[in-house]
Structure formats: structure tokens, C-alpha cells
Amino acid sequence: MESVFASQVSVSVVVPVFNTEQYLWECLTSLENQQLSSLEVIVVIDASPDKAYQLATRFAQQSRLAIRIINLDKNVGLAQARNIGMSHAKGQYLGFLDSDDYVDENMYQHLFNEASQQQADWVSCGFSKFSAHGVECYAHQNISENTSVCNKLFRREFIFEHQIVFPQGELFEDEIFSYMAELFADAVVHIEQAYYFYRHNPQGICRRAGADKHRLYARMSSIGDFMRRMEQSKLLPKAAPLCLEMLCRHAYLQLRTQVSWFDLLCYWRFTQHLIEKYQLNNSDSQTQDNYFVSSFSKWQSREWALWLIRIRAGRANYAVE
User: Is 22 exposed, middle or buried (0-12, 13-18, 19+ CB in 10 A)?
Assistant: First the structure.
């Protein structure tokens, strides 16, 4: 029976939940309204201290969807909650929806159709960020600007075949997962329409006051692990241009964060260490012309001037991912 059921499920959507009771009903309703009928929803309650489990259970009882609720006794974090959800999925494609966000009713139908027709390993769409201050739309195709897993569908067999999982206990688990999927994929499709709606939550783990230093060192840990896996998996020759762009972009964007001068220099020197260790400067000339690569190359040998650049960058009024 399970194999028959699995063949009927086009998309499995994993919804990890922690302390988002006030948004969860809207999130699940957006799945209820999906035009794609062969959809299963896996809600992972990550030992949430609110009444999210009771709310999800009540929603499931009245829903037309196949909703599976996994109630964890111990908080395991976003990455592991997603991994647990993936292990229960039966769909041809995997999607991820954060419990304080929601999706357009056409999202999974459109993404599944495109992925199926193009035989894609994964497909992404545009997304909108919304808050009390308004809405901003994005439709990045470059993977370095399109690292969220939530605006994507991934072919389940492809993910399992290459053992792509979310790194447990680290921030930026989306980024590592998306880079791995990009590098292993044979076919990828991008759709410009903004079907995913991301809530800008100032209380999120990466948005709280004083979180920039934590983010910086979490990035160092995640990126270090990612580079080691690239080397071990023999993907580094193929991945080198993308890795160089990623490292330089991250270093340059730290100029706009609220970390100490010492921490900033540590990050820049860590980046240079990885570039040299993995010989990434041998990448093609097109990568060397990339804005972030050329900017990092220009300033990393003139550390004394970084402070001036940082002051100038601090005047720019835009959010850093």
C-alpha cells in the first residue's frame, strides 16, 4: 500500500514548527488552497513551547490534505527538524515551508509541472519579503543570491542519491543544502514569478539585536564544513568558481554588519586561508571579474583601508542576507 500511495504523491512539503503558533494557521491554509491535489504535508513540531501541536492537529482533522504531524519531545533545531521531515516524505519532489511564511495557491502546481516537463533535479521561483513596511520581490537565478530552500522543489530521489542533508546545529543550513544541490544537479529550472511569501521577522534567530557576531562565526563553521565536503566528494574542480564567489561575497558583506574590527579581520583572513588552501584563485577569468571576487582581491591586501570601506558601506540602507 505504501508504494502505491508514494506513487500518487507529487510533492511532499515539510513544515518545521517552533514557537510560531500565531502564524501557523495562515501557513497551513496556504497549503490547503494549493491547486496541486497530490500533495502531502509533513508538520514537524520541534518541541514548540506554545500550542502549535494542538493547532496543527485541529487543522489536520478538518483538512482535505494528507497531513502527517510529528511531535518531537526534544528541540532539535531547524536543520534536524527538516531532515526528520524529509525521512518521512513520499512525494516525487520535496518542498520546504517555514511556519511563519505562506505560499501562493499556484506555487507547487507550477513548480511541479515545470520540474516534470524539464526533468529537473530542482526548480525555484521568485519570492516576496513582507513586513509592516511593505513588500519586496526577488527573482534571483544565480545560486549565490538564491540560497533559500523554501522557494524550491527538489527531486526526492536526487536528494537521497547524493545524501544531501541539512547540517545539524549550524546556521545557514539553507545555503549549504542549496549549494550542494546546485553542484550535483544535471538540470535546474528557474521561474521568475514570486510564489513564496517570506515574513521578515525581527525576532528570528538571525535578526535579533547583537546576532551579527554569532552569524559571522556560524558562517565560518558552515563554510569550512562545506569546503571539506567539496574536497572529499571530488567536486572541488567543478565547484571552485562558485566557491570562490561565495567566499568573497560573504567576506565583503560582513562590512555591513555590526561586528568588531577584530572579528571582521578574522573573517577576512579566514576567507583568504580557504582560498589559498583549496587553490580557488586558479578559477577562470570570468569568475575573477565577478564584483565580489574582484572587490575582495582588491581590499584583502589593504586591510588598513577596510575601515573606510566599512564606514561608507554602513551608510547604505539595505538588508544583508
Answer: exposed
